[in-house]
């Protein structure tokens, strides 16, 4: 083997009897996690609930009730962080028209998203990392835009998480650009996120990762009565929604159905999130979303971007899409008293840690390949140094058995080639760039190299 160093702090070696992991945290990211406030999160959710309804087709011009008032409040809250950002933060409305085209949209309306852009400090780094939540709420009837529809968890919890991240992260510089989007039209058909995804595609954004937060505050389930605020789900697609015939052939050749870019992002969320947030386990769900339902990550995935959904583990259907009322002795409705604010704080933390780590990491390694032209029980990987951004201090070569969901070993390599005494037929490999402070890029699965 050539140019191999084992970095003790990040070497993960698991055995059936014993496992030992040394956790190293970036002090800056750790301090931001500690700064997260469940009190502020609770105050934000209660304020969002005070708008009576945030239904997409509710009052657009009011100052106290309706989606229009809520939009202006969210924008104003984000703008409070502009002075502390040294001019890097900008906040704006992103308007889009929506017409009567199905049973969920009954009239013409111009809707708005709120977009906060925290510009990266490196002029050579055009990467974008986007986090999203939806502002609109709904009750039992999708067309009811006037009833009390508090939406405390769905998706007040996600919006509050974004507001808290903007407050804390805008004080710190990042190499890449962070975008925080609070969208409307989700309940009507993902219209707000679709508008942004199409804009990103048209303008050729270098969008590396999209995190969608939709319902991250409910820790008690209905029916089964499970109660647990120590787990959260991350949904990710296996077969890419935008897969071409050529991509399908390559996926079949390498058996890569469990290693899509979205799946690698989900693994990254788990590893980095659990590194920084205590008492929280990230469960990887190998589905794009729940049965028969979807979220704002959908159109980003469909248009070729890497996107995942972060969602509570225990959904409560006494809360979801219910106008508050008592029924058979049970209080229905998505009310703020049922939100677990400590749970929202922890879930905000995994978002913050993921975004900060990615935005500070070097670009991914380029032209990553695995040599398959020789019959051998070892594996040789090669890659090229990224030609943009800060040069990596080194690379992690990742390895796991084919039946394992998470990477089991990390080898620190300073060169651009490594040979490991493990067969490529029995293991999955990937390579990620890393800087001198331990910030890792997303892993890159190598393509087969057929010839010398």
**What's the arrangement of strands in the largest beta sheet?**
4-5-7-6-8-11-9-10
* Percentage of residues in strands: 15-25%
Q: What class do helices, strands and sheet pairing give?
A: alpha/beta
- Low-pLDDT runs of 5+ residues are 1-18
Label the CATH architecture of the largest domain: 3-Layer(aba) Sandwich
N-to-C CA distance? 19 Å
Contiguous helical run count: 10
Please give the CATH class of the largest domain.
Answer: Alpha Beta
Q: Judging from the principal axes of the Cα atoms, what is the shape?
A: globular
Q: What's the number of extended β-strand segments?
A: 20
Rg:
22 Å
- Oligomeric state of the chains in view: single chain
- H/E element string? EEEHHHEEEHEHHEEHHEHEEEHEEEEEEE
- What does the main sheet amount to? 8 strands, mixed
Mean pLDDT, all residues: 94
Q: What is the CATH topology descriptor of the largest domain?
A: Aminopeptidase
């Amino acid at each position: 083997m050539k140019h191999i160093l084992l970095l003790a702090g990040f070497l993960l070696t698991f055995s059936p009897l014993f496992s030992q992991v040394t956790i190293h945290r970036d002090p800056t990211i750790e301090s931001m996690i500690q700064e997260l406030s469940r009190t502020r999160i609770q105050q934000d959710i209660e304020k969002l609930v005070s708008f009576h309804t945030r239904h997409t087709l509710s009052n657009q011009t009011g100052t106290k009730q309706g989606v229009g008032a809520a939009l202006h409040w969210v924008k104003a809250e984000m703008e409070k962080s502009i002075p502390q950002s040294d001019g890097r933060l900008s906040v704006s409305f992103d308007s889009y028209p929506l017409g009567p085209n199905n049973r969920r949209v009954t009239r013409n309306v111009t809707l708005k998203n709120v977009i906060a852009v925290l510009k990266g400090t490196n002029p050579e780094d055009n990467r974008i990392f986007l986090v999203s939540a939806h502002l609109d709420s709904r009750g039992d009837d999708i067309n009811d835009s006037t009833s009390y529809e508090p939406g405390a968890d769905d998706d007040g919890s996600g919006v509050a998480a974004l507001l808290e991240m903007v407050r804390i992260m805008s004080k710190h510089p990042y190499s890449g650009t962070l975008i925080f989007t609070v969208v409307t039209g989700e309940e009507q058909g993902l219209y707000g996120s679709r508008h942004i995804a199409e804009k990103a595609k048209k303008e050729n954004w270098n969008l590396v990762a999209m995190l969608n937060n939709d319902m991250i505050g409910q820790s008690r389930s209905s029916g089964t009565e499970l109660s647990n605020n120590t787990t959260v789900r991350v949904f990710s697609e296996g077969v890419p929604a935008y897969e071409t015939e050529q991509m399908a052939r390559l996926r079949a050749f390498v058996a890569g159905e469990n290693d899509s870019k979205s799946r690698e992002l989900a693994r990254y969320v788990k590893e980095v999130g659990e590194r920084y947030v205590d008492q929280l386990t990230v469960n990887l769900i190998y589905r794009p979303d729940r049965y028969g339902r979807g979220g704002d990550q959908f159109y980003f995935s469909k248009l070729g971007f890497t996107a995942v959904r972060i969602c509570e583990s225990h959904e409560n259907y006494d809360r979801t899409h219910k106008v508050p009322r008592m029924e058979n002795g049970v209080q229905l409705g998505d009310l703020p008293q049922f939100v677990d604010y400590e749970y929202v704080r922890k879930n905000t933390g995994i978002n913050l840690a993921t975004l900060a780590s990615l935005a500070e990491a070097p670009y991914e390694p380029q032209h990553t390949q695995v040599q398959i032209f020789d019959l051998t029980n070892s594996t040789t990987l090669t890659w090229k140094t990224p030609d943009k951004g800060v040069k990596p201090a080194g690379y992690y070569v990742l390895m796991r058995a084919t039946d394992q969901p998470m990477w089991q070993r990390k080898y620190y390599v300073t060169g651009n080639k490594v040979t490991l005494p493990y067969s490529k037929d029995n293991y999955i490999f990937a390579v990620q760039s890393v800087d001198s402070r331990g910030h890792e890029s997303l892993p890159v699965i190598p393509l087969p190299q057929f010839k010398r």
